[in-house]
């Protein structure tokens, strides 16, 4: 066998081996593609169900928030119409009363002094009456 024939035979053998390897790699890639496709489809399905669940929860939260907004609005109205006017009335009464007490504080001091004088006079008169009797 000549060198050319030998080289040709080696080339043919290599083509067969490479062809077999090529087919094996191609088959394995198809298997991997099929496996990945199945996994991706499963993940996609899981994500879609989770997204649907999240959407459902968000709808529930929106309803709760709408209820909370209504409650807050009712509380604001109650504060504005009921509580604040009452607090203003209480404040007004307190301020008026404290002003009145402050103004009459001087009169209280005068009354204390008058009572002290009266006590002394009554005590003195009691002593005199006891001496007379």
What does this structure look like?
By secondary structure, this protein is mainly alpha-helical. 98% of the residues lie in helices and 0% in strands. The chain has one helix at 3-132. The mean pLDDT is 89.
Describe the structure concisely for a colleague:
The protein is mainly α.
Overall body shape:
rod-shaped
Number of helical runs? Answer: 1
Query: Poorly predicted ranges (pLDDT <50, ≥5 residues)?
Result: none
Query: Rg, please?
Result: 53 Å
Helix content: over 70%
Quantity of strands, as a count: 0
> How far from one another are the termini?
173 Å
Largest sheet: none
Mean pLDDT value? 89
Helix and strand pattern:
H
As a percent range, the share of strand residues is: under 5%
Which structural category fits the helices and strands? mainly alpha
